[in-house]
Amino acid sequence: MEWNIITVTQPAYEYIYSIIKKNEKNNIGILINIKKSGCAGFKYTFELIYKNSNKNFFSEQKNKKIIIKKINFFIPLKICKIIEGTTIDIVQQGLNKQIKILNPKTQSTCGCGESFEMKL
């Protein structure tokens, strides 16, 4: 399940797919983005995207659509170079599962692992 921008491990795929199936009505995929946040500088965000969304993420000039099996991943073009080579995985602690982003361009992360630093 590899593409030149992101790789999604099988456990991560199954976890994300289960979330999408729970929220299936008019759901067309998931948006992966980065925003300034946290003590290290940046944070990944994930957002379910719906057909009737008034957000402008779907034009070919602004986004890259990656299809991995049955999941449409939308990635803003402005961050494609930043997340190129990234692996999306799952970390399980007890009964809790959490998406883990492994980006080789990350220089450091904060102590809690919520945010990261990289040179842009």
From TrEMBL:
GO-annotated molecular function: 2 iron, 2 sulfur cluster binding
The biological processes this protein is annotated with in GO are:
iron-sulfur cluster assembly
Core domain: from which residue to which, for each copy?
6-114
The highest taxon in the source lineage is Bacteria
Pfam families linked to this entry: Fe-S_biosyn
Task: Report the InterPro entries cross-referenced here.
Answer: ATAP, ATAP_core_dom, Fe-S_cluster_asmbl/transfer, HesB-like_dom_sf
GO CC terms for this protein?
cytosol
- What PANTHER family does UniProt report for this protein, alphabetically? IRON-SULFUR CLUSTER ASSEMBLY PROTEIN, PROTEIN SUFA
Give the record's family classification. Belongs to the HesB/IscA family.
The name under which this protein is listed is Iron-sulfur cluster assembly accessory protein
In its UniProt entry, the species of origin is given as Buchnera aphidicola (Thelaxes californica)
Q: What is the lineage of its organism?
A: Bacteria, Pseudomonadati, Pseudomonadota, Gammaproteobacteria, Enterobacterales
